[in-house]
Each structure stands twice: as structure tokens, then as C-alpha cells.
Amino acid sequence: MRIRCKPWAKPELEACPFYISDPKACKGQWQAQFPKTQPLRLELGCGKGGFIAQEAPANPEYNYIEEVPLHESQQKVKESKDGMYREYTLTVRPSRDFLQELLWHGRNIIVLKPENLRQEMIDILKDMTKSYETGECLNGEE
């Protein structure tokens, strides 16, 4: 749930003892947020939390971090048996902010469709790679 889209949710979330209002402050220190040091599992695009609510009690040997959906229209359409791969559908008009949100997830997300959005992501990543290889900032333009 995006608090910026649903401000009424903030008091409910803040009342939860596990809620972290500034996850960026935990960068590199996630293990310290748990009473027990063990492998972490990150749930991306958690929807309403049903998957993680079943997964966490069934696998107490892992610490779980749940992340909000990318967009309120997000729906899970496919999941692998081991839970390591999921496909979602979203109904959005991709903005610059949305593209940055996708890029923020790095290797943990792949745009499959629509082809024009997939190609835009490929072009951005190619420009980024070229910038790192050459030291030139391309800003998406050649």
C-alpha cells in the first residue's frame, strides 16, 4: 500500500510494531531489525499480504521483508511452485516516476509486456550500461 496514495492508512501502519516508516535508513542493516539472524527473503509487490502471511509461518528459518505493490491496480497472475518467480499485471500510464520505480528494483523485476514499455526499459538500461562503460552521461540521448 502506497502511503502517498492512501494517506488514511498511515495511522494503521504506524500502529503496527513491525512497520518501518523509513526503509532507506535500514540499508545494509536489515538483519538488525529482526531478533534472530537468519537469511532474508524479500516479498516484492505484496498485494494485500496473503502470500507472505502463509509463507512466513511455514518457513520460520527466514526473516521476511514485505514491500508494497508497484501500483494499486497490481494483480498476481502467475507464481512458481517455489515462490521465487511471480508475474503481475498492472494497468498504468507509465510516467517517468513509474519507470524509475521499475529501475529501482534492478535485477528483481522484468517488464514482459507491453512491448513498447519493455523496449523503453531496454533502451534505458543500454544507455546506463554505455554510460558506465564510457564514463559519459548519455541522459537517454545519443
Fraction of residues in helices? Answer: 25-40%
Strand content: 5-15%
**Main pleated-sheet profile:** 2 strands, parallel
**Order of H and E elements:** HEHEEEHH
The number of helical segments is 4
Q: Outline the low-pLDDT stretches.
A: none
Order of strands across the biggest sheet? 1-2
Gyration radius from CA atoms, angstroms: 17 Å
**Number of extended strands:** 4
Instruction: Give the integer mean of the pLDDT values.
Output: 78
Gap between N and C termini, in Å?
38 Å
| Structure class | alpha+beta
Which of globular, elongated, flat, extended, rod-shaped describes the shape?
Answer: globular
Protein topology:
Layout: H1 10-15, E1 40-43, H2 50-58, E2 63-66, E3 75-79, E4 86-89, H3 96-104, H4 115-134
Parallel strand pairs: 1-2
Antiparallel strand pairs: 3-4
Features:
31% helix, two-stranded antiparallel sheet, alpha+beta, 142 residues, 4 helices, two-stranded parallel sheet, globular
Question: Can you describe what's shown?
Answer:
With 142 residues, the protein is an alpha+beta fold. Helices cover 31% and strands 12% of the residues. It is built from four helices and four strands. The chain has helices spanning 10-15, 50-58, 96-104, 115-134; strands spanning 40-43, 63-66, 75-79, 86-89. The strands form two sheets. A two-stranded parallel ribbon has the order 1-2. It has a two-stranded antiparallel sheet with strand order 3-4. β1, α2 (50-58) and β2 form a beta-alpha-beta unit. The longest helix has 20 residues, at 115-134. It is globular.
